[in-house]
Amino acid sequence: MGTIGTRLTSHVDPSSEAYLENRAAMERRWEEVAAAMARVPGVGGHRYVARHRARGKLLPRERIELLVDPHTPFLELSPLAGWGTEDPLGAGLVTGIGIVEGTEVAISASDTTVRGGSISPTTLAKSRRLHEIARHNRLPLIVLNESAGADLPRQADIFVPGGGQFRSLTRLSKAGIPTITVGFGPATAGGAYVPGMSDYTVFVRDRATAYLGGPPLVKMAIDEDVDEETLGGAEMHARVSGLADYLAVDELDALGITRRIVRHLRWRKLGPGPTEPADPPCYDPDELLGIASADVRVPFEVREVLARVLDGSRFEEFKPLFGERLVCGWGSICGFPVGVLANNGILFSEEARKGAQFIQLCNRIDTPLVFFQNITGFMVGTKAERGGIIVNGAKLINAVSNSEVPHFVVMIGASYGAGNYAMSGRAYEPRFVFSWPNHRIAVMGPKQLAGVMELIGRAAAAKRGLEVDEEALAAQTRALEDQIERESTALFATGRLWDDGIIHPADTRHVLGMALSAAHSNVVAGADAYGVWRH
Questions:
Q1: Contacts for 242 with CB less than 8 Å, ≥ 6 apart
Q2: Is residue 259 classed exposed, middle or buried when 0-12, 13-18 and 19+ CB atoms within 10 A define those classes?
Q3: Which tens digits make up the pLDDT trace of 480-490?
């Protein structure tokens, strides 16, 4: 069988001034991301890490490293969750996808060096996102648990949505997706339901505990004096309550037992897997650093990105002469066939119609879709409105909304306005969303948004017959522009889990390959029906 597409030709000049400027700007932004990531492992502080080690305990990433198969990659998700918020950087939780006994699994690991492993609103959101990924991609879930429960001063932001994680665990089990909880320390109050609602539980002797109310609460509630081990220790749960399925002598034993559990699952993928040659691109992926424009308002040729991500730089383009600002076509990544939608400028009616048709075609042949977002939005103005930009834009959003093949999104530039929606933004439940460090996201660009508000202010003043205070209005416009500038960065977005992590551009192909492989753990099948749309 022949391969998909023909080889793309690159016209990038790595010695050009524009390339070098773009590369320098991207490297500066990546340095900011790398500096933030470097703070995550030790976010709890050296004193708390030292205390944790003195107790003979491993750190969360060390547990993960010992759990996964040797020399296999671990795709960490949302490592900078909480950036720019009052919650801890990384949210005191490590999540990601790894390979255990040859099986791709979703893994979460509590970090008790961060506020005793207590759960903040961001911790909850990060955990919920991993459950979504496990459910949509049919990945067994392993929870390396050691948590003091909710961060009580934040209870108003945690209590009501917090119950959803227990419901989520039971839904995974109902769907036949195994859930395994490994207790390394406390599971307190509502947190005790995490092992209680898991298919398999492993408790470490003399370390793991689980109880709805700890000794102080028991004393206050029923005036009973009891120690932790008698109340809810690992041995008690293994011998008396039945909550612990396996009793491990130490942490290493617990991880070994967990690996044996995964082995006996004999997990089988339901997707077809890779079917194309997974040969590397013909052009150096490192050159992606200089291809994306330093200024997201300046477009760049997206086929240059595809040439450094797709297998063998091969691409079969669809409708190349129509709706040229949206590049559509077929290729493969790490052997997995994909349909590609990639922005090469603003969306007009032609691009919307083309994209909607292409999505339907990919659903007919059960081909996952990869969206490369660099979009400032849909075209506006009288001509665009008379040309049906709303009608045609709705077709594209309808197609994206009702498509059932897996979607993967890489934010390689701007993501403004309804362009975010049309290109399968986070609200449209793509399987994974990753961002480059240069990514910008907002309702519209900072200058445009601030300018619109200035015009509205002037119009409001004129309507009331008031004189405009030019100095005050200019200060207000500058302040709003600065605010949107701060709130539209990749770091701001990833801190709020609007993506699954910021990645180095040169790693794009490998990250997508791992995400595609995870998605093929589930059935890969397209939709055969869509909502009503106008013609």
A1: none
A2: middle
A3: 777 778 888 99
